[in-house]
Specification:
single chain, mainly beta, Immunoglobulin-like, 2 domains, four-stranded mixed sheet, three-stranded antiparallel sheet, 8% helix, globular
Length: 419
């Protein structure tokens, strides 16, 4: 039997004996009302921050999500637990100067993060009894897309009716360059971060652009990440460690994979090929085989797990057409939607290559949409209907680009559009 303490699963087979939950002593501190939780669900999972700034992050979204998904996560966050916050990783060892948790009234606590004068990416974790129960991506950049400062945006009409359907950023999520200089370093900086479909947790991309198509060895050579003290967090492949690693979803089937995703933002959740599963799906539960097609939202709104900053979202199909429809060729150095760097992917399934390997950097990129695959792109998407574990994306090669679909367990690029 599985039970819960704080935000941790416990099992009768677990040799560790956990103490019983203490009786509540927080009667004088009222829990947020349902409408407050509802509003908190729309708070962003990532923040665009200028170098040198200080940002304050409300933690109420963590409590709202665990309340909203309690049937899947099988618990709510304890109001009696010890709270803490920490830097999980940064891709420059001097990017984050400090992380401080201010405990107000439990759910109304806040995390204050002070940044250095550098650009880059960081992930901040919120812990309840030392278990990560939510995390946020900080995109530290001088780019201000709302005002076209240090970059620009692109309007796009995907059906040719003369009405703008999308406003695109000019770079990938997490990129510190738009890639417009077309130098090797600039192109690498433009790659940004990689995401498994439906997850808010970012993963660093390849360290170079030379992986190619013929890579037949395990490749865990991602961009270096560091802890708060500047120590390198080595990527460890299929072996759990302090850095990025791959976790088979077949491990501990009693625990839902959404729980694993939230509590371990460093883990890529992928199949180990020992289980028969036709879905290429990290989220899918083993008992019902159901998925959730709305993690990143639908064609009418942004999802709870959308990784784009406030005011932006992962693009969805519109007019029953791809967000990139009418984009003739994104492989040119300067397409009508800017430069699309060949960032590669974290591959879910590839012959002779262990799952989670980095592949195709410098050769290919996929850019996610939030729209799950259906039998025909012209069909109206039913986001409540379980579908196979694929989603639509935009495939870009050095000499070709088109709409495609890939398994949701792959980690690919994102380019945000305005809400």
């Amino acid at each position: 039997m599985v039970t819960i303490s704080s935000c941790r699963y416990e099992s009768d087979d677990d040799p560790v004996i956990y103490p019983e939950e203490p009786e509540s002593t927080s009667d004088t501190i009222a829990a947020p009302k349902p409408e407050e939780y509802f509003r908190a669900l729309s708070l962003p999972n990532s923040y665009m921050v200028q170098p040198g700034e200080t940002i304050t992050i409300p933690v109420i979204k963590a409590y709202a999500v665990w309340e909203q998904y309690k049937d899947i996560l099988r618990t709510k966050l304890s109001r009696e637990a010890t709270l803490s916050a920490t830097l999980l990783w940064q891709d420059r060892k001097d990017l984050v100067a400090s992380v401080v948790l201010t405990e107000n009234e439990i759910e109304y606590s806040e995390i204050t993060v002070t940044l250095s004068n550098n650009s880059g990416n960081a992930v901040i974790a919120f812990k309840v009894d030392d278990i990560i129960c939510w995390s946020w991506h900080l995109w530290v950049t001088n780019y201000v897309p709302e005002n076209n400062i240090n970059g620009r945006t692109y309007e796009w009409d995907n059906n040719g009716d003369g009405i703008s359907d999308y406003i695109w950023m000019d770079r990938n999520l997490g990129a510190i360059s738009s890639g417009i200089k077309l130098t090797y370093v600039d192109s690498l900086d433009a790659c940004g971060l990689l995401y498994q479909w439906g997850r808010k947790e970012p993963f660093p991309g390849d360290r170079d652009l030379k992986a190619g198509f013929n890579n037949t060895i395990p490749r865990y050579y991602s961009r270096t990440i560091y802890d708060i003290d500047g120590n390198i967090l080595e990527e460890t492949g299929s072996i759990p460690g302090k850095g990025i690693h791959t976790t088979p979803i077949s491990i501990d089937k009693a625990v839902h994979n959404l729980y694993k995703a939230i509590t371990n933002p460093l883990a890529l959740l992928m199949h180990d090929r020992k289980e028969s599963n036709p879905y290429e799906e990290w989220f899918i539960s083993w008992d019902t085989k159901n998925t959730d097609n709305s993690l990143w939202g639908t064609n009418i709104g942004k999802g709870v797990f959308d990784p784009c900053p406030e005011g932006w979202r992962v693009p969805s199909y519109k007019n029953r057409l791809s967000p990139w429809n009418r984009l003739d060729n994104a492989s040119t150095p300067y397409s009508r939607l800017g430069v699309f760097p060949l960032a590669g992917v974290r591959r879910h399934i590839e012959p002779q290559i262990p799952v989670g390997s980095l592949i195709w950097a410098g050769e290919m990129a996929y850019i996610w949409s939030s729209t799950p695959m259906i039998s025909s792109p012209e069909e109206e998407v039913d986001y409540l209907k379980p579908t196979p574990g694929f989603a639509y994306a935009y495939q870009v090669l050095s000499n070709y680009s088109s709409t495609a679909y890939i398994g949701k367990s792959n980690a690919a690029s994102i380019r945000c559009v305005r809400e």
